[in-house]
Amino acid sequence: MSDTSLLNQLGVVKRQIVRADKAAVDKLARFGAATIHEAMGRVGLMKPYMRPVYPGARMCGTAVTILMQPGDNWMLHVAAEQLQPGDVAVAACTTDNDDGFFGDLLATSFRARGALGLVIDGGVRDVNDLAAMDFPVFGRAVHSKGTVKATLGSVNIPVVCAGALVHPGDVVIADVDGVVVVPAARAMEVANAAEKRESLEADKRARLAAGVRGLDMYQMREPLEKAGLRYID
Fold first, then answer.
1. pTM passes above 0.70
2. Is the dihedral angle over the CA atoms 181, 182, 185, 187 positive or is it negative?
3. Tens digits of per-residue pLDDT, 126-142?
4. Among 4, 26, 92, 203, who pairs with 161 as Cys (CB 3.0-4.6 Å)?
């Protein structure tokens, strides 16, 4: 995005967004981030530094997007008003920043609006409180450094969060394996593909447990031989 385009997007709050179909979101919630990423064609993943701030955190919901300025959490407060039940807040920053944008007070506000969690390409604090609340947060850092409220960003515009493009209303799935974004228009297609992949993996798991070698199940022996693999006794 050019500097001019970015400036035109600042100071904007879009109140009306089209969220992914709820049935598709509910179906996607049955599967893990890795399965969905693979089913979608190995796209949509955020960078691997995005980690849950406490063990067991996971979420699946529709994105309300937030563009923040470094060291400034003003737009998180603005975004709280736009959250609806089933949403996941997705916060990007105009530049890399690890400050503690989010803590238990904002989590309390987000939960009161029905939000399922937060994905933030920035820092988080009050981790023990977030864990006690069981409010899932995935971020790039844990940092006690506070923020100010001084510079406008935007809410519900397309953002790039940890390397992934997120549009308002897209489906965001996050678990211990990572964070993946499914475009709203593809939500049911990807959910069906994930279901099929899960079924195939269950069959493969049973065969491997029965002693079948992966070399045979995946028909690897001939291509390995052609590639020059030699066995030496």
1. yes
2. negative
3. 999 999 999 999 999 99
4. 92
